[in-house]
């Protein structure tokens, strides 16, 4: 009888042991994530309490250069290769040729010579690891013949990063808030409570994403470089379209004959259209002459 009872209890013992092992794995994963979060939180607090020139501070580095070079394409290519060699990326690279002035002169009967002055410029947006920032910044003047402007900035975002960490801690570790939320979910307005809970979770996610973005900007500096070169002259031959579009003499004569014939036909058609007026005019002339000739002898006799 005792053996049968033990056999019935065996499945329960197996389930209990599985539940304990599963809960142990869940607890270990939870403890691991909590440990990582605590480490990041501790590092943020340490960075906030460190001096302003300490390497633990979260500082975003940016630089802006406006330079003149002998050859824009060569300087742009060299700088792009340098950034890629140190583990950076070329976020944007744009080269543009802008025309300044154009003059056209006679060259041959069917050709013209066009002289154009243009300026070549390029604009680059680069992301460089902070460790190699000084190397890239020092290499830019060596590529330039003249530096119009240079701006270096350091933006300390340590406290902004720490504020996001502390706000997330308050939402996670506040037992009173958790109990209040659990009680509110049992109230008569569960939809509003759920919306409030979702809003808090979204804010927490937004703060985490913002901190990730800040960490990336701290690790990779942003450089904006503008290159320009002196004006260049470009001379080339173009087609004289006005000469090619001229009509030959024979075609002009043929066109003149056609135009005259069309005018004659139009006049003939016009005369046909006004034939009643012509008849009335002819009758009026005849009557006028008869009346005039009758009165003329009477005046002479008088």
Explained architecture:
There is one protein chain. The protein is α+β, with helices and mostly antiparallel strands and 302 residues long. Strands 1, 2, 3, 4, 5 and 6 form a six-stranded mixed sheet that branches. It contains nine helices and six strands; from the N terminus they run αβαββαβαααββααα. The protein starts with a helix and ends with a helix. Helices cover 61% and strands 25% of the residues. It has helices spanning 2-49, 72-85, 133-143, 158-173, 175-184, 190-219, 241-244, 249-273, 275-301, and strands at 59-68, 89-108, 111-129, 146-156, 220-228, 232-239. It has a domain at 59-157 and 224-239. Residues 1-27 and 29-34 have low confidence and may be disordered.
C-alpha-based Rg, rounded = 47 Å
From the N-terminal CA to the C-terminal CA, the straight-line distance is 176 Å
Percent of residues in beta strands: 25-35%
Question: What is the general shape?
Answer: elongated
The SS-based structural class is alpha+beta
Count of DSSP-assigned helices: 9
Sheet with most strands: 6 strands, mixed
Topology order in helix (H) and strand (E) letters? HEHEEHEHHHEEHHH
| Poorly predicted spans | 1-27, 29-34
Helix content: 55-70%
Q: Please tell me the overall pLDDT.
A: 77
DSSP E strands, number: 6
Provide a compact summary of the structure.
The protein has helices at 2-49, 72-85, 133-143, 158-173, 175-184, 190-219, 241-244, 249-273, 275-301, and strands at residues 59-68, 89-108, 111-129, 146-156, 220-228, 232-239. It is of the alpha+beta class and 302 residues long. The longest helix is centred in the N-terminal third of the chain and has 48 residues, at 2-49.
């Amino acid at each position: 009888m005792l053996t049968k009872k033990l056999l019935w209890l065996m499945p329960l013992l197996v389930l209990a042991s599985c539940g304990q092992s599963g809960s142990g794995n869940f607890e270990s994963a939870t403890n691991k994530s909590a440990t990582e979060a605590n480490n990041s939180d501790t590092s943020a607090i340490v960075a906030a309490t460190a001096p302003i020139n300490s390497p633990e501070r979260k500082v975003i580095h940016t630089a802006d250069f406006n330079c003149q070079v002998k050859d824009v394409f060569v300087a742009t290519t060299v700088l792009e290769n340098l950034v890629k060699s140190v583990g950076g990326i070329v976020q944007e690279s744009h080269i543009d040729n802008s025309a300044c002035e154009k003059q056209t002169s006679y060259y041959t009967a069917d050709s013209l010579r066009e002289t154009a002055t243009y300026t070549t410029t390029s604009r680059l947006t680069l992301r460089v690891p902070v460790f190699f920032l000084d190397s890239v910044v020092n290499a830019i003047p060596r590529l330039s013949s003249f530096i119009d402007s240079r701006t270096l900035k350091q933006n300390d975002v340590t406290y902004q990063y720490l504020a996001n960490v502390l706000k997330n801690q308050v939402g996670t570790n506040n037992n009173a808030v958790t109990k209040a939320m659990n009680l509110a979910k049992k109230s008569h307005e569960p939809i509003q409570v759920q919306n409030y809970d979702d809003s808090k979770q979204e804010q927490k996610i937004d703060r985490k994403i913002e901190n990730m973005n800040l960490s990336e900007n701290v690790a990779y500096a942003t450089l904006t470089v503008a290159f320009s070169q002196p004006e260049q002259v470009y001379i080339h031959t173009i087609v004289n379209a006005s000469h090619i579009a001229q009509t030959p003499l024979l075609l002009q004569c043929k066109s003149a004959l056609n135009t005259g014939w069309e005018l004659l036909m139009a006049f003939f058609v016009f005369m046909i259209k006004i034939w009643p007026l012509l008849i009335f005019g002819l009758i009026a002339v005849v009557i006028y002459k008869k009346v005039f000739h009758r009165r003329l002898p009477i005046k002479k006799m008088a």
